[in-house]
Amino acid sequence: MKRIASVHFAAVSLERPTYAGLYKIPAVARDAAPYILNIGDKVQIWQTVATMGKQIRRETILAREIALDCIRMWTQNVLGASPQCHPGIWIVRDEIAVMYEDKDADGNPIWKPRLDADNKQIFRPATDEEQKQMFDEDHQDALVCDANYAELLVGQADEWFASSNTKDRRFIGDLHKAAAKAYGREREWLRSFAQSDLKACPVCKTMNPRDAMKCQKCAEIIDAAAYRDFKRRNKEIMESDQNGEPLPKGRFYPCNDCGAEFLNQKELVKHRLDCTKKPANAEAHVQPA
Protein backbone atom coordinates (compact mmCIF):
# COMPACT_ATOMS: atom_id res chain seq x y z
CA MET A 1 0.00 0.00 0.00
CA LYS A 2 1.26 3.45 -0.94
CA ARG A 3 -0.15 6.86 -0.06
CA ILE A 4 -0.16 10.09 -2.05
CA ALA A 5 -0.70 13.42 -0.26
CA SER A 6 -1.88 16.65 -1.87
CA VAL A 7 -2.21 20.31 -0.97
CA HIS A 8 -2.87 21.30 -4.60
CA PHE A 9 -5.49 24.01 -5.22
CA ALA A 10 -7.07 22.13 -8.16
CA ALA A 11 -8.53 18.66 -8.61
CA VAL A 12 -6.52 16.07 -10.56
CA SER A 13 -7.31 12.62 -11.91
CA LEU A 14 -5.60 9.80 -13.77
CA GLU A 15 -7.15 6.81 -15.52
CA ARG A 16 -5.39 3.57 -16.43
CA PRO A 17 -7.95 1.29 -18.17
CA THR A 18 -5.52 -1.63 -18.61
CA TYR A 19 -5.72 -2.43 -14.89
CA ALA A 20 -8.99 -0.65 -14.05
CA GLY A 21 -7.22 2.17 -12.29
CA LEU A 22 -8.97 5.50 -11.71
CA TYR A 23 -7.31 7.84 -9.24
CA LYS A 24 -8.78 11.19 -8.22
CA ILE A 25 -7.68 13.90 -5.81
CA PRO A 26 -10.06 16.81 -5.07
CA ALA A 27 -9.00 20.41 -4.72
CA VAL A 28 -7.54 21.25 -1.30
CA ALA A 29 -8.06 24.60 0.44
CA ARG A 30 -4.97 26.48 1.58
CA ASP A 31 -5.64 26.08 5.31
CA ALA A 32 -6.95 22.50 5.08
CA ALA A 33 -5.04 19.37 5.98
CA PRO A 34 -3.41 17.42 3.12
CA TYR A 35 -5.67 14.99 1.28
CA ILE A 36 -4.44 11.39 1.41
CA LEU A 37 -5.02 8.94 -1.48
CA ASN A 38 -4.43 5.25 -0.77
CA ILE A 39 -3.11 3.14 -3.66
CA GLY A 40 -2.90 -0.66 -3.67
CA ASP A 41 -1.52 -3.26 -6.04
CA LYS A 42 -3.40 -3.88 -9.28
CA VAL A 43 -3.58 -6.82 -11.70
CA GLN A 44 -3.08 -6.11 -15.39
CA ILE A 45 -4.69 -8.55 -17.84
CA TRP A 46 -3.17 -8.93 -21.29
CA GLN A 47 -5.55 -9.78 -24.13
CA THR A 48 -5.28 -10.12 -27.91
CA VAL A 49 -7.67 -10.47 -30.81
CA ALA A 50 -6.40 -13.99 -31.51
CA THR A 51 -7.67 -15.21 -28.13
CA MET A 52 -11.16 -13.70 -28.74
CA GLY A 53 -10.89 -11.47 -25.70
CA LYS A 54 -9.82 -14.17 -23.27
CA GLN A 55 -7.04 -13.35 -20.87
CA ILE A 56 -3.65 -14.79 -21.76
CA ARG A 57 -1.50 -13.33 -18.99
CA ARG A 58 -1.91 -11.64 -15.63
CA GLU A 59 0.71 -9.26 -14.28
CA THR A 60 0.76 -7.54 -10.91
CA ILE A 61 1.37 -3.78 -10.96
CA LEU A 62 2.91 -2.76 -7.65
CA ALA A 63 1.46 0.17 -5.73
CA ARG A 64 4.87 1.87 -5.77
CA GLU A 65 4.93 1.87 -9.60
CA ILE A 66 1.37 3.23 -9.77
CA ALA A 67 2.20 5.99 -7.30
CA LEU A 68 5.28 6.98 -9.28
CA ASP A 69 3.18 7.05 -12.46
CA CYS A 70 0.63 9.33 -10.82
CA ILE A 71 3.28 11.69 -9.49
CA ARG A 72 4.96 11.87 -12.89
CA MET A 73 1.69 12.80 -14.63
CA TRP A 74 0.53 15.24 -11.95
CA THR A 75 3.76 17.07 -11.08
CA GLN A 76 6.26 16.56 -13.91
CA ASN A 77 4.21 16.45 -17.13
CA VAL A 78 2.66 19.87 -16.60
CA LEU A 79 3.50 23.12 -18.36
CA GLY A 80 6.25 25.07 -16.64
CA ALA A 81 6.99 22.41 -14.00
CA SER A 82 10.36 22.44 -12.26
CA PRO A 83 11.75 20.99 -9.00
CA GLN A 84 10.69 24.18 -7.16
CA CYS A 85 7.50 24.91 -9.15
CA HIS A 86 4.87 22.20 -9.56
CA PRO A 87 1.55 21.09 -8.05
CA GLY A 88 1.85 20.31 -4.34
CA ILE A 89 1.46 16.52 -4.58
CA TRP A 90 3.91 13.95 -3.24
CA ILE A 91 4.32 10.32 -2.25
CA VAL A 92 4.22 9.79 1.49
CA ARG A 93 7.52 8.21 2.50
CA ASP A 94 7.20 5.22 4.82
CA GLU A 95 10.58 3.57 4.32
CA ILE A 96 14.24 4.58 4.45
CA ALA A 97 17.08 3.41 2.24
CA VAL A 98 19.58 1.07 3.88
CA MET A 99 23.07 2.58 3.74
CA TYR A 100 26.52 1.23 4.48
CA GLU A 101 29.83 2.94 5.08
CA ASP A 102 32.52 2.76 2.43
CA LYS A 103 35.65 4.64 1.46
CA ASP A 104 36.46 6.66 -1.63
CA ALA A 105 39.69 6.66 -3.64
CA ASP A 106 41.35 8.97 -1.10
CA GLY A 107 40.34 6.78 1.83
CA ASN A 108 37.64 9.14 3.13
CA PRO A 109 34.51 7.47 4.57
CA ILE A 110 31.34 7.78 2.48
CA TRP A 111 27.85 6.30 2.72
CA LYS A 112 26.43 4.27 -0.15
CA PRO A 113 22.99 2.62 -0.61
CA ARG A 114 22.90 -1.11 -0.13
CA LEU A 115 21.74 -3.11 -3.19
CA ASP A 116 20.22 -6.58 -3.48
CA ALA A 117 21.07 -9.37 -5.95
CA ASP A 118 19.01 -7.65 -8.68
CA ASN A 119 20.99 -4.42 -8.20
CA LYS A 120 17.97 -2.71 -6.64
CA GLN A 121 18.13 -0.45 -3.62
CA ILE A 122 17.15 -1.98 -0.28
CA PHE A 123 14.76 -0.13 2.03
CA ARG A 124 13.73 -0.65 5.64
CA PRO A 125 10.41 0.37 7.26
CA ALA A 126 10.57 3.78 8.90
CA THR A 127 9.55 4.29 12.50
CA ASP A 128 6.58 6.43 13.47
CA GLU A 129 8.82 9.33 14.43
CA GLU A 130 10.76 9.11 11.16
CA GLN A 131 7.53 8.99 9.15
CA LYS A 132 6.16 12.05 10.93
CA GLN A 133 9.39 14.00 10.39
CA MET A 134 9.54 13.10 6.68
CA PHE A 135 5.85 13.96 6.21
CA ASP A 136 6.28 17.41 7.78
CA GLU A 137 9.31 18.13 5.60
CA ASP A 138 7.53 17.06 2.41
CA HIS A 139 4.42 19.00 3.44
CA GLN A 140 6.34 22.28 3.78
CA ASP A 141 8.14 21.73 0.48
CA ALA A 142 4.83 20.98 -1.27
CA LEU A 143 3.26 24.20 0.03
CA VAL A 144 6.13 26.25 -1.41
CA CYS A 145 6.05 24.44 -4.76
CA ASP A 146 2.28 24.78 -5.04
CA ALA A 147 2.42 28.51 -4.33
CA ASN A 148 5.14 28.98 -6.96
CA TYR A 149 3.07 27.05 -9.50
CA ALA A 150 0.02 29.21 -8.78
CA GLU A 151 2.08 32.37 -9.31
CA LEU A 152 3.29 30.96 -12.62
CA LEU A 153 -0.26 30.34 -13.82
CA VAL A 154 -1.48 33.77 -12.72
CA GLY A 155 1.45 35.38 -14.54
CA GLN A 156 0.61 33.48 -17.72
CA ALA A 157 -3.02 34.57 -17.55
CA ASP A 158 -2.01 38.21 -16.95
CA GLU A 159 0.25 38.13 -20.00
CA TRP A 160 -2.43 36.63 -22.24
CA PHE A 161 -5.09 39.05 -20.99
CA ALA A 162 -2.84 42.08 -21.58
CA SER A 163 -1.83 40.90 -25.06
CA SER A 164 -2.85 43.07 -28.02
CA ASN A 165 -4.19 39.92 -29.68
CA THR A 166 -7.51 39.27 -27.98
CA LYS A 167 -7.48 35.67 -29.20
CA ASP A 168 -4.83 34.87 -26.57
CA ARG A 169 -7.45 35.31 -23.85
CA ARG A 170 -9.09 32.02 -24.79
CA PHE A 171 -6.05 30.20 -23.36
CA ILE A 172 -7.01 31.33 -19.85
CA GLY A 173 -8.66 28.22 -18.42
CA ASP A 174 -10.17 26.93 -15.23
CA LEU A 175 -6.75 26.05 -13.81
CA HIS A 176 -5.60 29.68 -14.04
CA LYS A 177 -8.82 30.85 -12.39
CA ALA A 178 -8.48 28.27 -9.62
CA ALA A 179 -4.92 29.44 -8.91
CA ALA A 180 -6.00 33.09 -8.67
CA LYS A 181 -8.96 32.32 -6.42
CA ALA A 182 -7.03 29.96 -4.13
CA TYR A 183 -4.29 32.51 -3.46
CA GLY A 184 -6.50 35.60 -3.35
CA ARG A 185 -5.40 37.25 -6.59
CA GLU A 186 -8.03 39.70 -7.83
CA ARG A 187 -7.98 39.77 -11.62
CA GLU A 188 -10.28 41.12 -14.30
CA TRP A 189 -10.02 37.87 -16.27
CA LEU A 190 -11.71 35.98 -13.44
CA ARG A 191 -15.05 37.00 -14.94
CA SER A 192 -16.90 34.60 -17.19
CA PHE A 193 -15.68 34.89 -20.77
CA ALA A 194 -19.13 34.00 -22.05
CA GLN A 195 -20.42 37.30 -20.68
CA SER A 196 -17.46 39.59 -21.27
CA ASP A 197 -14.74 38.71 -23.75
CA LEU A 198 -16.12 35.91 -25.94
CA LYS A 199 -19.22 35.34 -28.00
CA ALA A 200 -20.55 32.22 -29.71
CA CYS A 201 -20.91 31.81 -33.45
CA PRO A 202 -24.62 31.42 -34.37
CA VAL A 203 -23.78 28.60 -36.80
CA CYS A 204 -21.01 26.40 -35.33
CA LYS A 205 -21.18 27.67 -31.70
CA THR A 206 -17.42 28.32 -31.62
CA MET A 207 -16.38 30.92 -29.05
CA ASN A 208 -14.85 33.99 -30.70
CA PRO A 209 -13.41 37.28 -29.36
CA ARG A 210 -16.02 39.92 -28.63
CA ASP A 211 -14.71 42.24 -31.38
CA ALA A 212 -14.60 39.53 -34.09
CA MET A 213 -16.57 40.21 -37.28
CA LYS A 214 -16.27 36.65 -38.67
CA CYS A 215 -16.10 33.26 -36.99
CA GLN A 216 -12.54 32.00 -36.83
CA LYS A 217 -13.71 28.46 -37.62
CA CYS A 218 -16.53 28.62 -40.21
CA ALA A 219 -16.04 32.23 -41.45
CA GLU A 220 -19.69 33.08 -40.73
CA ILE A 221 -20.33 36.82 -40.27
CA ILE A 222 -21.00 37.40 -36.57
CA ASP A 223 -21.28 41.20 -36.42
CA ALA A 224 -23.01 42.36 -39.63
CA ALA A 225 -22.89 46.08 -38.76
CA ALA A 226 -19.17 46.02 -38.02
CA TYR A 227 -18.51 44.01 -41.18
CA ARG A 228 -20.43 46.51 -43.36
CA ASP A 229 -18.54 49.40 -41.76
CA PHE A 230 -15.24 47.61 -42.40
CA LYS A 231 -16.08 47.08 -46.09
CA ARG A 232 -17.15 50.74 -46.45
CA ARG A 233 -13.95 52.06 -44.87
CA ASN A 234 -11.86 49.70 -46.99
CA LYS A 235 -13.57 50.94 -50.16
CA GLU A 236 -12.98 54.57 -49.16
CA ILE A 237 -9.29 53.90 -48.60
CA MET A 238 -8.94 52.23 -52.02
CA GLU A 239 -10.74 55.07 -53.79
CA SER A 240 -8.60 57.71 -52.11
CA ASP A 241 -5.48 55.87 -53.25
CA GLN A 242 -6.70 55.81 -56.85
CA ASN A 243 -7.45 59.54 -56.73
CA GLY A 244 -3.92 60.68 -56.05
CA GLU A 245 -2.04 58.86 -53.28
CA PRO A 246 0.56 56.28 -54.37
CA LEU A 247 -0.52 52.65 -54.19
CA PRO A 248 1.69 49.92 -52.71
CA LYS A 249 3.82 48.04 -55.22
CA GLY A 250 3.31 44.38 -55.98
CA ARG A 251 -0.50 44.27 -55.48
CA PHE A 252 -1.83 46.34 -58.41
CA TYR A 253 -1.76 46.45 -62.23
CA PRO A 254 0.31 49.37 -63.65
CA CYS A 255 -0.09 51.16 -66.96
CA ASN A 256 3.14 50.78 -68.93
CA ASP A 257 2.73 54.21 -70.54
CA CYS A 258 1.73 56.66 -67.79
CA GLY A 259 2.63 54.56 -64.72
CA ALA A 260 -0.84 54.66 -63.12
CA GLU A 261 -1.80 51.60 -61.04
CA PHE A 262 -5.18 49.88 -60.73
CA LEU A 263 -6.75 47.21 -58.51
CA ASN A 264 -7.73 44.87 -61.36
CA GLN A 265 -7.27 44.35 -65.07
CA LYS A 266 -10.76 45.64 -65.91
CA GLU A 267 -9.97 49.08 -64.47
CA LEU A 268 -6.64 49.04 -66.27
CA VAL A 269 -8.33 48.34 -69.64
CA LYS A 270 -10.75 51.24 -69.12
CA HIS A 271 -7.86 53.54 -68.34
CA ARG A 272 -5.89 52.54 -71.41
CA LEU A 273 -8.79 53.54 -73.67
CA ASP A 274 -8.49 57.14 -72.47
CA CYS A 275 -4.81 57.23 -71.57
CA THR A 276 -3.27 60.58 -72.61
CA LYS A 277 -0.04 58.82 -73.52
CA LYS A 278 -1.79 56.17 -75.63
CA PRO A 279 0.31 55.12 -78.66
CA ALA A 280 -0.94 55.47 -82.21
CA ASN A 281 -1.87 51.79 -82.40
CA ALA A 282 -4.61 51.70 -79.74
CA GLU A 283 -5.45 48.06 -80.41
CA ALA A 284 -1.97 46.97 -79.43
CA HIS A 285 -2.16 49.12 -76.34
CA VAL A 286 -5.46 47.75 -74.98
CA GLN A 287 -5.31 44.23 -73.46
CA PRO A 288 -8.42 42.12 -72.86
CA ALA A 289 -9.56 41.55 -69.26
Provide structural commentary.
The chain has 289 residues and is of the alpha+beta class. The protein folds into three domains: 2-92 and 147-188, no CATH class; 191-235; 246-285. It has six helices and 15 strands. It has helices spanning 63-76, 128-162, 174-182, 224-242, 265-273, 282-285; strands at residues 2-6, 12-16, 21-25, 35-39, 42-47, 55-61, 89-91, 95-97, 99-103, 109-113, 123-125, 198-200, 207-209, 253-254, 261-262. A three-stranded antiparallel sheet has the order 4-1-7, sandwiched between helices. Strands 2-3 form a two-stranded antiparallel sheet. α2 (128-162) crosses α3 (174-182). The model is unreliable at 280-289 (pLDDT under 50).
Biggest β-sheet description: 3 strands, antiparallel
Pick out the low-confidence regions. Answer: 280-289
Strand order of the largest sheet: 4-1-7
Distance between the termini: 81 Å
What Rg is obtained from the alpha carbons, in whole angstroms? 34 Å
The tally of domains stands at: 3
Number of helical regions = 6
Shape: elongated
Overall pLDDT score: 80
Q: What percent of residues are in strands?
A: 15-25%
From N to C, what is the helix and strand string?
EEEEEEHEEEEEHHEEHEEHH
User: What is the helix fraction of residues, given as a range?
Assistant: 25-40%
Strand elements, count:
15
Quick overview of this protein structure:
By secondary structure, the chain is α+β, with helices and mostly antiparallel strands.
